[in-house]
Amino acid sequence: MAQTSEFAVELRDVVKTFKTPEGTLLNAVDHVTMQIKHGEFFSMLGSSGCGKTTSLRMVAGFEWPTGGEVYIEGKAQGHIPPFQRPVNTVFQNYALFQHMTIYQNVAFGLEMEKAPVNEIKARVGRVLDMVQLQGMERRYPKQLSGGQQQRVALARALVKMPNVLLLDEPLGALDLKLRKEMQLELKAIQQKVGITFIYVTHDQEEALTMSDRIAVMSKGRVLQVGAPVEIYERPNCKFVADFIGTSNFLDGTVKAIEGDKAEVFVPVLNAEVKGLVSANVSVGDGVAISVRPEKIRLAEKSVLSQNCFEGRIVNSVYIGSDTHLIVDVNGLQMKVWEQNKISSLDPRAYYTIGQSVWLTLFPENTLVLARD
What is the rounded average pLDDT of the residues 255-278? Predict the structure, then answer.
């Protein structure tokens, strides 16, 4: 398919304003700008009400922007009806026709376009094979499992060969095990067909598993766009660090900056902590230090002259691959995830409640972030 634009989809300074029941105006999408590349698996991630679904619906054409513009393949599409856009949508509730067979469901869109019968048969067969539903053409949706129905919805969208496939929390109705399986399947299908996928989810692990890039959204705004490793390892603000994964936060004041490192005085520890500084932090600023639980090192003695603090284990939960510990440091409860690298039933192999330990916050794993 010839590409007519640098981006498959672009939102330029898009605003969507709704009137609330109280009569006030609310910007559900508040000056959002995003560029989504051809063939990319791009996720919009955020909690309920962050604007991700409204943004997707404006790409689909189910909502029109109040301000700004939506471009698809370089063409302004913000006020074009959905059926005239080169996109297709997969919904959370599947929206399958219950009185039609699987074949009829998948073929429906092509029949509406009056495609030749032989072409319909070939294309339906191809996509059903792709989503591993070959041989089930005569079944009805109610005769399929939730995961199989999800595949039918995906096949129905893919058979029309859209430039862009929009997916609005499509795995939300599935149980956890099936959801994880479908995440990997969806990613594999996307790589096979090469179509741009724009995926909306509130599930951070889902976004990290499947996406080439993620836009983290809050209160109608995009806070950070980046690859999964960038979003997790280098969040640009406290909200992103808190929303993606688990973090410990320490409040403090920047005392000095040298290169990419900052010295931060943390009152609760009555000590200075050294960490990687983000670009929008200056000397004298109040900041939040973020450190992931799995990146804290526990030892029976101090191993660094700085960033080492004595504590006492107050809770320990064994969860198989890891042991989740809560360590009290000067009244501060620090979460520490210890990987269980040794297979043992010996209780001495594990940290125990009441045990004294030293926590090491390596500067390269300690992020100094602007407070939200």
Answer: 93
Residue 18 has which token pair?
A: 């709704």
The pLDDT of residue 36:
97
Mean per-residue pLDDT, 3-20: 90
Give pairs for 81-86: CB < 8 Å, separation 24+. Answer: 85/60, 85/61, 86/162, 86/163, 86/164
Place of tokens 């300074």: 13
Residue 298, class by beta-carbon neighbours within 10 Å (0-12 exposed, 13-18 middle, 19+ buried)?
middle
Within 300-355, strands assigned E span 308-318, 322-329, 332-339
Q: How confident is the model at residue 1 (pLDDT cuts 50, 70, 90)?
A: very low
Q: Please state, in angstroms and rounded to a whole number, the distance separating the CA atoms of residues 300 and 174.
A: 44
Packing angle of the helix pair 176-193, 117-130 (nearest 10 deg):
130
φ, ψ for residue 223, nearest 5 deg: -90, -35
Expressed in angstroms, the distance from the first to the final Cα of the chain is 43
Q: Report the C-alpha gap between 104 and 159 in whole angstroms.
A: 12
Q: Which pLDDT band holds residue 15 (cuts at 50, 70, 90)?
A: very high
Copy the structure tokens of residue 199.
Answer: 């995926």
* Residues recorded for the chain: 372
State the DSSP string of 48-61. Answer: TTSSHHHHHHHHHT
